[in-house]
Amino acid sequence: VHNVGVIGAGQWASNGLRVIAESARCRLHAVADLDPARLAPVAGRHPGVRTGTDPAVVVDNPDVDLVYVATPPATHAALAGRALAAGKSVLVEKPFTTDPADAAVLVALADEQRRTLMVGHTFLYSPPVLAVADLISSGALGDVFYVDAQRVNLGRYQDSGVLWDLAPHDVAILLHWLGEAPTSVSATGRSFVSAGREDVAFLTLHFPGGALAQLHLSWLSPTRLRRTTVSGARRMVVYDDTAGPEAVKVYDHGVHRSPAPESFGEAQLTYRTGDIRIPRLPAVEPLKAMWEHFVDCVETGATPRSCGRQGLVTVQVLAAAERALRTGRREPVAYPPLSVPTARMEVSA
Ligand SMILES: NC(=O)c1ccc[n+]([C@@H]2O[C@H](COP(=O)([O-])OP(=O)(O)OC[C@H]3O[C@@H](n4cnc5c(N)ncnc54)[C@H](O)[C@@H]3O)[C@@H](O)[C@H]2O)c1
Questions:
Q1: How far is CA 274 from the centre of its chain?
Q2: What is the DSSP code string of 175-232?
Q3: CA distance 17 to 311
Q4: Which residues have CB under 6 Å of ligand 1?
Q5: CA 214 to CA 202: how far, in whole Å?
Q6: With the C-alpha atoms ordered 35, 40, 46, 50, is the resulting torsion angle positive or negative?
Q7: Do 181 and 211 contact (CB within 8 A), yes or no?
Q8: Which residue among 7, 41, 59, 215 is least enclosed by CB atoms within 10 Å?
Q9: pLDDT tens, 275-299?
Q10: Is the peptide bond before 257 cis (omega within 30 degrees of 0)?
């Protein structure tokens, strides 16, 4: 049984705390949060758990072997770095870090310490996302032309802005689906309500294989939409994360170009509208599946699906999008080598 320490006991961590407490292979051992008011309900719900306002109750605790970091994004690098340096395996919430250099340092540190480092890209453990991944990798959709993703709702405003809050999900999903990273990103965004942090952003990602992706991200939408269209050369998919068992619809639709006969000039386009199929999805809670995958990887040494390197690439894409927001230009996504000296790490939170 693994002893788990959790840093950050805010809104989202309450889900993680439940999943950890319910895991047969884990024991919730210690929880740290700067705010004592967040710790009181945790202590009430999980008797016997050590709590403290100093992250040291987790990172400097020799009994803890797994650490879950669920604090605000700007604190992830320092806290995850301290936990890795202390020899723990770490699951860090999204966004992995707010700076690609920090993400590279964490990846190198995990390698050096031979510990599991995983990022909380929850959607990579969600049945509809995995069903679409299968449709793409099996060739059922044909070459992917483009992906159009709407992830919009009202609030909740956070320091990091809507780009760093919502885009990590779609970027991680796209990396997993397409199996490649975009080469460049363009972005438009605005801070309508709160100066200095965008509450609306539109991103366009250009992939080397030719696919295009458009992400609509907003904290200023009256309705909550999680709707992604994947248009392929053979079939098309609409993935609506709010639609429960009908989250994935596969449309046997397409547009085909038949070569023009010599004598008639223009190529002919034919439109095909066939059946619409709804694949059956397993009833799995993504967060639970993510946590159990983390424990599996710790025990077997396997590389997590949402590993640190994948998290690093995600942060590189987000950083390029952030640059594009500032410059108004299409920005290349940089992929620096991973051999960043670990000495760069500020090991103090
Ligand atoms: N995977 C997902 O689907 C998903 C969903 C929501 C949020 N998140 C992520 O979870 C993280 C937390 O989000 P939230 O909505 O719970 O935020 P929150 O503000 O509700 O909670 C953050 C908590 O961290 C504490 N904290 C801040 N700095 C700390 C430090 N240095 N040491 C210890 N505690 C500290 C705060 O007191 C607060 O209780 C974020 O990274 C967010 O992006 C992930």
A1: 33
A2: HHHHSS--SEEEEEEE-SSSTTS-SEEEEEEE-TTS-EEEEEEESEEEEEEEEEEEEE
A3: 22
A4: 7-13, 32-35, 38, 55, 70-73, 75, 93-94, 120, 122, 349
A5: 7
A6: positive
A7: no
A8: 41
A9: 999 999 999 999 999 999 999 999 9
A10: no
Q: Model's pTM, two decimal places?
A: 0.94
Cα 262 to ligand 1 centre (Å): 64
pLDDT tens digit sequence for 77-130: 999 999 999 999 999 999 999 999 999 999 999 999 999 999 999 999 999 999
Kindly indicate the confidence band of residue 259, based on its pLDDT and cuts at 50, 70 and 90.
confident
Q: Which residues does 23 contact at the CB level (< 8 Å), separation at least 6?
A: 288, 291, 292, 295
pLDDT in tens, 5-34: 999 999 999 999 999 999 999 999 999 999
What's the distance, CA 202 to chain centroid?
17
- Rounded to whole angstroms, the Cα distance separating 168 from 162 reads 10
pLDDT at residue 336 in the model = 55
Q: Which atom number of ligand 1 is nearest to the Cα of residue 10?
A: 21
**Structure confidence at residue 332 as a pLDDT band (50, 70, 90):** very high
Residue 7's H or E segment, with its range, is strand 2-7
**Ligand 1, residues 71, 163, 224: which to mutate, most atoms within 8 A of Cβ?**
71
User: HSE of 86 in the Cβ direction (CA atoms, 13 Å)?
Assistant: 24
What separation in Å is there between the alpha carbon of 7 and the centre of ligand 1?
9
Compute the residue count for the chain: 349
Residue 118, beta-bridge partner list: 91, 307
pLDDT band at 335 (very low <50, low <70, confident <90, very high): low
Please state the three-class secondary structure of 136-180 as a single string.
HHCCCCCCEEEEEEEEEEECCCCCCHHHHHHHHHHHHHHHHHHCC
